Amino acid sequence: MKFYDTSALLDLGAAAFEPASATASSATASSATASSATEPFLIADMTLHELEEIKTSGKKSEEIRYKARTVTRLLAEHHDDNTFMVVAVPMSSLFYILDGKPISDNNDATIMATARWYLDEMQRNLDDAIEAGLPEAQRQIQANIDSFKFVTSDLSCANIASGILYLPIEFTYPDAAASANNNYTG
Q1: Bridge partners for 42 per DSSP
Q2: Are the C-beta atoms of residues 89 and 112 closer than 8 Å to each other?
């Protein structure tokens, strides 16, 4: 189960909308199940807001604005085919998650907190399924928890997501951290 931030969607473009097995590495693809191939990816409602801001921003490059317009179009084209799901959470729940954490109040924080809320909600659902004695529901929910990844290409966001919000992370391309380290000039 992938939860994409805005940078991941911009990087992946149309590939985000392909079945999971088509975008996975060959090692992962061989072990992908039929159910994971049709599993929708998740995005925060804040990502929709960010895409709107990016596509009209005079501060962004034409390439980035084009990517934002492309992803916005793809989201519209796929809005009813279960390719993705928008997760909208009341801000009070997100503030609760971020309370006392050394994280700036910005769009990235909102997106990461939304992912944390979703993962926590799945854990609550698992606890309910255990209490109710529903083994099949337990198995499916546990599989979703085990496969959950917050996907980004933003190294700072990844560090905060994993180090402070304890989200399992994945980069949009396997060598993101190594590439960023090799390209650092500051």
Answers
A1: 3, 85
A2: no
